[in-house]
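User: I'm putting together notes for a lab meeting next week and I want to include a structural view of one of the chains we've been expressing. I don't have a solved structure, so I'd like a prediction I can at least talk through. The sequence is below, exactly as it appears in our construct file.
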Amino acid sequence: MDEQDWLAGQFEENRSRLKQVALRMLGTAIEADDAVQEAWLRLNRSDAGVIDNLAGWLTTVVARICLDMLRSRKSQREEQLPDGPFEIADIGAVDPERKAILADSMGPALLVVLDMLTPPERVAFVLHDMFGMSFDEIAPILGRSQAASRQLASRARRRVRGTADGSGVRVEANDGRDRAERRIVDAFLAASRDGDFETLLSLLDPECVLEADEFATLMGGPKPIEGGRKVAEFFNGRAAAAVRATIHGVSGGAWAPNGKVRVAFSFTFRNERIVGIELIADRKRLQELGVQLLEN
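Assistant: Thanks for the context. Below is the predicted structure for the 296-residue chain, given as structure tokens.
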């Protein structure tokens, strides 16, 4: 058997799993097949001899192809998939209970919800929650840090949990939780404006991480800051111009001079505290996030 035949055999062994990864990201069998075929073409153009983990390499390539396809997708609608559960392919150690729940919920209703996510949110959620990939594997695919990738998956998970009765209509899973998070964000912005350090500290998880994308950094945003106390010190007295906002329906904040959003403040919550804050100034990402300003 020559090297090309061996490579083709290895690819065929991974084809079914790669198809399931692509199908859950893209939602259509035709596009999933296209993504898998493109991965095969890229494998042929690569030096397979230097690839240590072929299955992992192929998963990464398919995920990046799907991310590009999601970003370039305009207004086309996803084709209808069959009703009923799909089998979730194993990739890494996936929690059996989570796997069963996801398998039961995969269908047209969930696809509608997934289509509401931004491309990075969708990729992060699918790779982590459905296929058990770690965030240190997902981060390079998205071009984000591990913390930012974790926040993307968390936001996506909240919306997926809002899938209700199979009708495809998104509803909130827990209005009480949403109201609590709004109160936390409101209190955080007020404490930041007023320089109330102790309140800031009480609202932040001790392991809170603050990050800014490259555009926000150019506008004066920080390099990654880890630890609730250090994050509180950064925000203490600094958010005088911040306003309340929703980011894809989740409570957040924004800097929006003259009503134009320049920087979004995206929050991630854990146990009724803020565990992650991302400052986003990339115009393309701001459009994807659907930032809506709220009256203070």
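A couple of points you could mention at the meeting. The radius of gyration is 21 Å. Residues 74-106, 163-174 have pLDDT under 50 and may be disordered.

User: Perfect, that's what I needed.
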